[in-house]
């Protein structure tokens, strides 16, 4: 079952790659993280389905057991799959192509994995249960025949003895460890301690969020041991600090034969030369200054345009070297009508202030000057301009994406858990997890960039896995039970599968830890944080919050969450009837011990009768 449980997610990964490749979608290195995420999500579903199957009543037919299993596990895996799909679907709209493509691959893979879990894995589970049932019956029959020597009589009794492990009509054992744990969480001293711990956690997370630096480091896109790191270091250390060119394109220049227009263009150049960190006039290369300076050396009988043509054709002492920096308007006969467009270059040096904040400030100043001369249609180009453009938008894009993703998650949960207490508590827990992940990533030396934005979306989707399960199982329990009983039953039903799923998710990313790529390590750190924080919130914080909300509801006379639908749980009378055996003389003996004790007791009574 372990191998076949992994087979479903792997099939989903293969189907996704094949489908998208078939339609011509590109592939990039960031999508290689997707298979590990899908395996983690798939294992989560597998643990929940298997755990639900083990709780079914083995007296029922296999068809009914599967139906009860999917009734128990179906809503949980549906809400988590839906929230993951919606989370990555929102990420498809991000402006960064690589992140958008990754979200597309992951969104489709999660959807395909959900289909395979409901079809392939459930079918595998049916065959496995048939095999186990055959083995159990065979072993029991051999034991009874061997020990008692009464095959027919024992078999008739043994056919009536079935495991009563299934949906129990009563809440969890009040003396059990889960019930005691719930009472521990309900103690006011525990709640005060949790509140203090959470206050410190939220403070640290808020500090991390406020201090997270928006940064686009080119070295984050290559391996740590790549020789390209040396080039990136030289670029960072010398070019940005000691001088780098800025190219300015004037796409709609005025008539430069007019002296006033010449001064206006030179004033544009001067504005760039006097900006902070500019290296000044000596760093500027512009053809107009050279032309005006050298024009006195020529016999000016042809006017400005004619002299310009002669100057550009003079390869010895003229301006032939400037031909690549301007384009001329020409008539059909080749006569120059004027300058169509031109460019010039100037340099800047940031010195010790060479960082992304300074680059962003400089680019805004360059574009501010260009905007003042909008009638010239001025365009500024610098090699890292497109990085700055992403820096300008990534903060707002991340915030809006996170807000929309959180709203979408709540709406998806509301469809499956339409109860105010459950929704509010799960939303608070989900927000707490994501604030913690985002803040602690900053403390863990992770900057805000497109990769972090992508992992934030992943974190929102994964955080629902640790809150929706508990909230749903708490919500679906009978409202006649106390808050403690509902929570204890929820933890007993889903607590262990959640721990198994969290452990398997961490194990899935262990191979990624051997990769030195910054991008991969951001995913590793995010998954570790969301898994650890998620399981702590799901097992500790959210249960305490549910207990508190239940107490507040009773205090203010409110009612607790109503059920989605009547639970398919047997009445106590039905359990008593199913747990009794009729002997040949119509005497009824209640089963209260294990199978071997029951058999011996019944046979002794029959023998004495």
TrEMBL record:
Keywords annotated in UniProt: Cell membrane, Glycoprotein, Membrane, Transmembrane, Transmembrane helix
Membrane-traversing stretches: 7-27, 33-52, 73-93, 99-127, 394-417, 423-444, 494-514, 526-546
Positions of region (Disordered): 561-586
Subcellular location: Cell membrane
Keyword Transmembrane carried by entry: yes
Segments of skewed composition (Polar residues): 576-586
NADP among keywords: no
Biased composition (Basic and acidic residues): 564-573
InterPro entries registered for this protein in UniProt: Patched_domain-protein, PTHD_SSD, SSD
One of the record's GO cellular component terms: plasma membrane
Membrane topology: Multi-pass membrane protein
SSD domain mapped to chain residues: 1-127
Matching PROSITE patterns: SSD
PANTHER family noted in UniProt: PATCHED-RELATED (PTHR10796), SSD DOMAIN-CONTAINING PROTEIN (PTHR10796:SF87)
Family the entry assigns: Belongs to the patched family.
Protein name: SSD domain-containing protein
Native source organism of the sequence: Caenorhabditis briggsae
Biological classification of the source: Eukaryota, Metazoa, Ecdysozoa, Nematoda, Chromadorea
């Amino acid at each position: 079952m372990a191998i076949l449980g992994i087979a479903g997610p792997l099939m989903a990964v293969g189907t996704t790659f094949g489908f998208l490749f078939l339609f011509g979608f590109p592939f990039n290195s960031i999508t290689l993280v997707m298979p590990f995420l899908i395996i983690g999500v798939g294992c989560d579903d597998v643990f929940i389905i298997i755990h639900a199957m083990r709780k079914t009543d083995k007296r029922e037919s296999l068809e009914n057991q599967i139906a009860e299993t999917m009734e128990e596990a179906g809503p949980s895996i549906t809400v988590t799959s839906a929230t993951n799909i919606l989370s990555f679907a929102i990420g498809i709209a991000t402006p960064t192509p690589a992140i958008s493509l990754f979200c597309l691959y992951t969104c489709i893979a999660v959807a395909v994995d959900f289909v395979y879990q409901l079809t392939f894995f459930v079918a595998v589970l049916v065959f496995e249960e048939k095999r186990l049932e055959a083995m159990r019956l065979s072993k029991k029959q051999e034991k009874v025949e061997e020990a008692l020597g009464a095959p027919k009589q024992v078999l008739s009794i043994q056919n009536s003895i079935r495991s009563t492990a299934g949906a129990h009509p009563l809440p969890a054992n009040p003396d059990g460890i889960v019930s005691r744990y719930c009472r521990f969480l309900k103690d006011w001293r525990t709640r005060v301690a949790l509140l203090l711990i959470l206050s410190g956690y939220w403070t640290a997370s808020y500090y991390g969020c406020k201090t997270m630096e928006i940064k686009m480091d080119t070295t984050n896109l290559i391996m740590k041991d790549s020789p390209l790191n040396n080039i990136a270091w030289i670029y960072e250390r010398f070019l940005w600090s000691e001088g780098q060119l800025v190219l300015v394109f004037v796409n709609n220049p005025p008539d430069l034969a007019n002296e006033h227009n010449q001064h206006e263009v030179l004033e544009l150049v001067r504005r760039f030369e006097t900006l902070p960190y500019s290296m000044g006039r000596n760093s500027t290369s512009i053809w107009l200054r050279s032309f005006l300076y050298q024009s006195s050396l020529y016999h000016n009988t042809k006017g400005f345009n004619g002299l310009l043509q002669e100057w550009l054709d003079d390869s010895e002492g003229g301006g032939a070297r400037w031909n690549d920096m301007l384009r001329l308007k020409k008539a059909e006969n080749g006569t120059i009508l004027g300058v169509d467009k031109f460019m010039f270059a100037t340099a800047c040096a940031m010195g010790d202030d060479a960082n992304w904040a300074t680059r962003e400030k400089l680019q805004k100043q360059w574009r501010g000057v260009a905007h003042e001369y909008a009638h010239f249609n001025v365009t500024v180009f610098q090699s890292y301009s497109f990085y700055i453009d992403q820096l300008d938008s990534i903060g707002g894009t991340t915030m809006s994406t996170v807000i929309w993703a959180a709203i979408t998650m709540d709406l998806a949960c509301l469809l499956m858990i339409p109860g105010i207490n459950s929704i509010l508590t799960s939303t608070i827990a989900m927000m707490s997890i994501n604030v913690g992940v985002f803040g602690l990533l900053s403390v863990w030396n992770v900057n805000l960039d497109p990769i972090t934005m992508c992992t934030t979306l992943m974190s929102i989707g994964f955080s629902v896995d640790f809150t929706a399960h508990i909230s749903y199982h708490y919500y679906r329990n009978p409202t006649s039970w106390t808050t403690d009983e509902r929570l204890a039953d929820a933890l007993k039903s889903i607590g262990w599968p959640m721990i198994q799923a969290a452990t398997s998710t961490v194990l899935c990313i262990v191979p990624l830890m051997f990769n030195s790529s910054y991008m991969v390590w951001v995913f590793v750190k995010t998954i570790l944080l969301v898994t650890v924080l998620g399981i702590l919130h799901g097992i500790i914080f959210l249960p305490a919050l549910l207990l508190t909300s239940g107490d507040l509801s009773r205090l203010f006379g409110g009612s607790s969450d109503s059920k989605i639908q009547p639970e398919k749980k047997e009445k106590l009378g039905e359990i008593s009837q199913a747990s009794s055996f009729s002997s040949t003389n119509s005497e009824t003996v209640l089963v209260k011990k294990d199978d071997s004790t029951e058999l011996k007791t019944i046979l002794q009574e029959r023998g004495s009768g």
